Amino acid sequence: RTGETFAGSEMPVMLQRGSDGSLQRRFMNLVYQALRDSNGSVYGIFVHGIDVTELVESREATRASEERLSAILNNAPAMVYVVDDQNRFRFINGRWKPVFGLTNEQTADRSIYEFFPQEIADQFVATNRAVLASRAPVEAEEVVPHPDGLHTYISVKIPLFDAWGNPYAVCGISTDITERKRAEEARQATETRLRL
């Protein structure tokens, strides 16, 4: 009625599709524009629509998939992290908060050297370089300082590849095996004492 152009993005509409006449929900980018005669009076409406349903559904599927993956990673009992080829954090999971008091936001784009002592960070860097150079997973035992002392982790690190097949980052999954190591050492000490 106003004669103003209206544009709507990803507007939900019900369209009759198929031979059975059933209605389907679709998403359309729509433009409504007044048609005017030579005197400027509106005599009709031009409607242009583009069906963007696949785009909307694909984006929603991606969002849902990312939410599932985030829930899995953030509730995993292991430390999960991604560092780029410059050893800057790109991601840490929720396990880092109770262990180190760190969040993903606090570590994003920051070097591992900002969070760990030089000699520990150097060991991490060496393993990360080996992963990127070999383009294959590497398993390593790593010792990490905690507020209550040193903890031993078994870490599996895998290369991440870009669209061209070049490694650009390392994803690590590290499980604290400190209690298991202590129990093994205690068992060995007991066996040694019993042999004497």
Concise synopsis of the structure shown:
The chain is of the alpha+beta class. It is elongated. The protein has helices at 53-75, 96-100, 104-107, 118-134, 178-195, and strands spanning 6-16, 23-36, 42-51, 79-84, 89-92, 138-146, 149-161, 167-176.
Describe the structure.
The structure is a single chain. With 196 residues, the protein is an alpha+beta fold. It contains five helices and eight strands. The protein has helices spanning 53-75, 96-100, 104-107, 118-134, 178-195; strands at residues 6-16, 23-36, 42-51, 79-84, 89-92, 138-146, 149-161, 167-176. A five-stranded antiparallel sheet has the order 5-4-8-7-6, with helices on both faces. A hairpin with a 5-residue loop joins β2 (23-36) and β3. The radius of gyration is 29 Å and the shape is elongated. It starts with 5 loop residues before the first strand and ends with a helix.
